TrEMBL record:
One of its GO terms (molecular function) is enoyl-CoA hydratase activity. This is 2,3-dehydroadipyl-CoA hydratase. SUPFAM superfamilies: ClpP/crotonase. Belongs to the enoyl-CoA hydratase/isomerase family.
């Protein structure tokens, strides 16, 4: 049983992971990151799980790396940091991941949110990379993913000043896709998860991979990947079912085959 997370299955095919370290505003210590990586590994292996939603509390999605834990690490400790392997497992999660963000998403918390494929924010959410105030810089993808999400100028401003932006600004900049009233953030994320959970799993997985490729490859390679993925899906039973269901005017029953 994880101690720092709650895991629920609120809808068919959907897992909801809630970060639960209220005493530290969900700061990401080694234990929490390890438990989160293990839960995502389990969700990856479970064929019934199609989509994962991750959330925190009303006050904080996550306030960053655990600074008290960081204070105990010297350079050797940082070089052998077990959290690096946990982050790599979180990054490798291949099913759709939706973040429902209320309150603070700072430092590693903002970086965790940016691991999600879809970000839904409550009006009170605040996104920031304040590491510069600690004499360090983002180390879990903050410089790379933030720049790709919001562009150079805003990413530079956020990382170099350490100042956070609010949810509406994050939406205008393209970091989040929707802003909700804070009490509906999780509900809205679950609604989206439920829609995706009913789609053909192989098509969803391939589409996610192709979209992520667009961020880190040139157009010609990305288009080649898209064409291969599209062709592969042509051999699936779900494609046949999707087309047949359309012609028979009924909902498709996808099986992931
Ligand atoms: N690590 C450990 N504990 C944290 C924490 C963190 N990142 N953020 C908050 N806490 C703890 C506080 O120490 C406090 O605990 P105590 O009562 O035991 O002192 C408790 O959570 C509540 O926090 P505050 O009293 O500070 O709450 P607030 O509402 O006044 O302020 C806040 C909220 C603005 C988020 C403030 O807590 C804050 O600035 N937190 C640090 C944010 C930060 O710098 N994050 C980046 C960390 S570095 C990083 O993330 C690097 C990386 O991944 C690679």
């Amino acid at each position: 049983m994880p101690r720092t997370l709650a895991v629920q299955a609120p809808e068919d095919g959907v897992r909801l992971i809630t970060l639960q370290r209220p005493e530290a505003l969900n700061a990401l210590n080694t234990e929490l990151l390890g438990e989160l990586a293990a839960e995502l590994d389990a969700a990856e292996r479970d064929a019934e799980t199609r989509v994962v939603v991750i959330t925190g509390s009303r006050k904080a999605f996550a306030a960053g790396a655990d600074i008290k834990e960081m204070a105990e690490r010297d350079l050797v400790g940082i070089l052998n940091d077990p959290r690096v392997a946990h982050w790599q497992r979180i990054t490798a999660f291949s099913k759709p991941l939706i973040a429902a963000i209320n309150g603070f998403a700072l430092g590693g918390g903002c970086e965790l949110a940016m691991h999600a494929d879809i970000l839904i924010a409550g009006e009170d959410a605040r996104f920031g990379q304040p590491e510069i105030n600690l004499g360090i810089m983002p180390g879990a993808g903050g410089t790379q993913r933030l720049l790709r999400a919001v562009g150079k100028s805003l990413a530079m401003q956020m990382v170099l000043t350490g100042e956070a932006i609010d949810a509406r600004h994050a939406q205008r900049a393209g970091l989040v896709s929707e802003v909700t009233q804070p009490e509906f953030t999780v509900e809205r994320a679950l609604q989206i998860a439920k829609v995706i959970a009913r789609k053909a799993p192989l098509a969803v997985r391939m589409a996610k991979e192709a979209l992520l490729k667009a961020q880190d490859t040139d157009l010609a390679s990305g288009l080649r990947f898209e064409r291969h993925a599209f062709t592969l899906l042509a051999g699936t039973a779900d494609r046949e079912e999707g087309i047949r269901a359309f012609q028979e005017k009924r909902p498709a029953q996808f099986k992931g085959q």
